[in-house]
Amino acid sequence: MPTYRLTKLVRITNDTQRTSDFNYSGTGPVEVCKAWAEIQPMLAFERQQAEQIYAGATHRIVIRWPGVDISSGMRIEHEDRVYQIGGVMDIGGEGEYLELTCSANRNAAGNGTTR
User: What is the bridge-based pairing of β-strands 81-91 and 75-78?
Assistant: First the structure.
């Protein structure tokens, strides 16, 4: 059984269409769930392999399966960073952990990455 250091609490969000009482409509992030995660930047050779699946992959994030469907196109938010999910894989096929291939490109304020 693999052991992971799930020490970071992350928010998983998805863009959905919203309307308000003032006839404003637009898309915005809505929280799908929270999960404990391990966030690791990819090494150079890992990035080359991941590029075949998801262009722009920079990080690998492992979470315990949260009980809801997680798909590419969703986002993970942690502190001031936002990670775009590009690929989802069930580790070991047992439905216990998910490995998310992500790209870190913007912080929560919408600016470039801060680190």
Answer: antiparallel
